Amino acid sequence: MIRPKLSLQRPLAILGAALIGLTGAVAVAGPASAHHTTITAVADCDRLTGERVITWKVENSERNKAVTLKKVTADPSTDVTVPVKGSKAVPLEGSVIRKGGSVLAVQRVPGDTKSAKLTVFGKWKKNGQEATNDGSINLAADSSCVPTPTCVDVNKAKYSHTFDGPKGTATVKLDGDLPLCGEGKQWFTLVSYFAPRPQFATPQYVYGTPDSNWIGGTQTEITLNVEIPDCHTQVDLIWGGKDQVIDELVEGGKRYDNKKLGSSGAPGNRSKGPQGWYNGGSKSCTTPASTFASNCDGSVAVSLSNDGKISKYAVEFEVKGENGFTKKVSVPAGKADTSVVVPAADAGKIEVLVDGKVVENGTYSWQRPEDCPLPVVTTKADCKDFALTVSNPEGGLPVKATFTYGDKNETRTVASGSSETVTFKASKAESALVALPDLDLEMEAVYTPEGNCGGGGAGGEEPGLPVTGAAAGGIAAGAIALLIAGAVLFVIARRRRVTFTA
Predict the structure, then answer these.
(1) Which of 3.40.120.10, 2.40.40.20, 3.40.190.10, 2.60.40.1230 would CATH assign to domain 37-138?
(2) What does the H/E/C string look like for 366-397?
(3) pLDDT class of 384 with cuts at 50, 70, 90
(4) This model's pTM is above 0.70
(5) CATH fold of 376-450, please?
């Protein structure tokens, strides 16, 4: 029997195939770069510092190998540390994460940071495997992180206020529970003015002393008070100190505008409350007054003044008399005017008006002054006639005089500086009456003729022959005495008669 010859080619091919299969299995089972770290993060805000606090969690994927973090790179580039209870925190770089474990690291970044990234390069002990991994967090979705304030910036503070213009009072209070920061102070001022009308008008003048105070430190509320004039006024609550006060508000001049608290614009709108301004008052800021002085000639001198405590504006006076007399005079504040004289013909009733209204005690009628000289009455008589004369001194009014003797009477008007004489025929009446009705006076004059009218007195027998000899001298002396007595001025008495005899 012939045995076939064996060949080695086929067994070698089978062995090669088996080796190739075993090599493929080892390669699939190998680690082939499976090592890595997983990095996640959460963030919070530190309200004390205004920083974002990121907590990074770095996990070791290998459950049977520890990893050493050889290099740590952070963006933003701030420290990344691992807290250690009871001790100082240590850097994340160089930390070892146990197999299958993790570590928490903290990073602080500015409060306005939008995103952060952490890159870690790790090495595993066995076989020297290494890997670089990173993680990131988006912070833009959160609102900006700012510190919790402990005070309020003076330039950003808000306030609330009250205001009572007619009473001249106001309060201002800092809003919230926090004081102004540092040495910051905010001043406020209350000021009152004289005003020409109860609505806004110019010019205006500061009345009294403005009240000014500030808010700052522990002083978070203030009260302001000012005196209000007893006339038209404006009161303003303004932002700022006394250096902001406008002493005179004039046409086309400076205004407070939005400095008034309660305004619609800054800075006044930084305080909430009623409008911090007031216009009102029930009377004019002037003190119009008038006085009157009667003159002996019947005219009246009118004095106009405007000099009281609240007189701040000129006053337009109008002086009216009878028969259409009128005169207008403007008197400046603090001044007086004595130029108005109402003539005698118009001085029966005088009125002084301002704005069409009679001022207090502004009505007057002429009254005869007590120091005016009175008319003088003199007589002259003989056996045939009885003459009576009224003399009116210069500087006075014309005087009406009524002369009555017996059943006869006559009336005369005696001009100033002139005389009027009435002569009656002598009769048995022993006296005559002179009445001055304008002066409410009456005077009685006794008929005392010169010489001897026959011994029968007035209207008696014809006088006898002249007396001669020694007796003639005595008679002549008596005649002279009678002549002097007849020419004497008679005493004037109001509403009473005084009889004079020679």
Answers:
(1) 2.60.40.1230
(2) CCCCCCCCCCEEEEEECCCEEEEEEECCCCCC
(3) very high
(4) no
(5) Immunoglobulin-like (2.60.40)
